[in-house]
Specification:
The chain is an alpha/beta fold. It has ten helices and six strands, in the order E-E-H-H-H-E-H-H-E-H-H-E-H-E-H-H. It has a six-stranded mixed sheet, sandwiched between helices. Strand 5, helix 8 and strand 6 form a beta-alpha-beta unit. Helix 1 crosses helix 2. The radius of gyration is 42 Å and the shape is elongated.
């Protein structure tokens, strides 16, 4: 389980060599929100990721399919455009600002949505992509740190070679790559990814990050303090609320089951009574058939009444 901590501040005030993380779309657009701030801070990083997003890896791969395949991956950009200078000869890398020279940052672009604006992916798809992209970033960091150790020796070798031949262009390029690969990597610092223009509640993204294996510090401006969950205790509270909702749902189901059971019991109790009533009706029908029905009973009553009247009349005549 990852350790996710939060603090108030500016992400671009993080310690040197830190890895700054933000969420991106796969179209190469950094036109608004936090992405626009990253674009302003490092135009070279923006150019790098835009080329990455708009250049399919194979000639037979369509741009739409390629961009869709980027969802759930991460692009880790080095602090300085050494690689960009080599790979983008047709471009002029932006000159680093004084702040960038003093503080070298790696920039990690988590591709959590294929589109943006009205075409942004669903929250569930974004959360799934976040889980996969952070896992990809963690693996890239592990591999980079291994190469950093290996390239230290290569860097020394190329430097000695350049001392003998300063005009060797190939050696200079290899040395530039080694310098990029030997750049130290610090801790991970991130904004509250997905909670801005992508519209995913931060508490849900934070839960996904905590379920991973990449530790990071979340840097947020003071204006966000009332928008979402503020502490780990609130995560427990949120989980408790979900548990409470689940319990209420279970109680509702059990109550409905009890109601149905009581209804069945009432029906079962009423069936013998209905059976007895039906049996009585059948007996009456049999008596009517044998001449012992209501007419016979009524006739019997009249006979008894007539006998009584005779006795009364006899008494009076006497």
């Amino acid at each position: 389980m990852a350790r996710i901590t939060e603090r108030v501040g500016d992400i671009f005030d993080s310690p040197p060599n830190s890895i700054l993380i933000h969420a991106c779309n796969t179209k190469g657009s950094w036109g608004a929100g936090v992405a626009a701030a990253f674009k302003k801070y490092s135009p070279a990083a923006f150019n790098y990721q835009k080329y990455h997003c708009t250049t399919p890896t194979g000639p037979s791969t369509s741009l739409a399919a390629y961009q869709k395949s980027l969802v759930g991956t991460c692009l880790l950009i080095s602090p300085f455009p050494a690689v960009e200078t080599l790979n983008f000869k047709h471009r002029t890398p932006a000159k680093p600002t004084t702040q960038q020279v003093e503080k070298k940052y790696w920039i990690a672009c988590l591709f959590t949505s294929s589109g943006y604006g009205k075409n942004v992916d669903t929250p569930s798809a974004i959360l799934d992509a976040t889980k996969r992209a952070t896992a990809d970033l963690r693996e890239q960091i592990r591999e980079r740190r291994i190469r950093i150790q290996q390239n230290e020796q290569m860097k020394e070798r190329y430097e000695k070679s350049l001392q003998q031949n300063r005009d060797d262009v190939d050696t200079r390029r290899l040395l530039a790559i080694c310098e990029e690969e030997t750049e130290m990597m610090g801790e991970c610092y991130s904004v509250r990814i997905n909670s801005g223009l992508f519209g995913v509640p931060w508490v849900e993204t934070k839960r996904v990050l905590k379920g991973g294996l990449l530790d990071m510090v979340i840097v947020r401006p003071a204006s966000q303090k009332d928008e979402v969950v503020e502490s780990d205790h609130d995560d427990d509270l949120y989980a408790g609320q979900l548990h409470h909702q689940k319990e209420n749902s279970t109680k509702t189901v059990k109550s409905a089951e009890r109601g149905q059971e009581e209804k069945r019991n009432r029906i079962e109790e009423e069936e013998p009574i209905a059976g007895a009533t039906q049996s009585g009706s059948m007996n009456k029908g049999v008596k009517r058939k044998n001449g012992e029905g209501d007419g016979a009973e009524e006739k019997s009553k009249k006979n008894r009444g007539g006998g009584k009247q005779t006795k009364l009349n006899f008494g009076k005549s006497k």
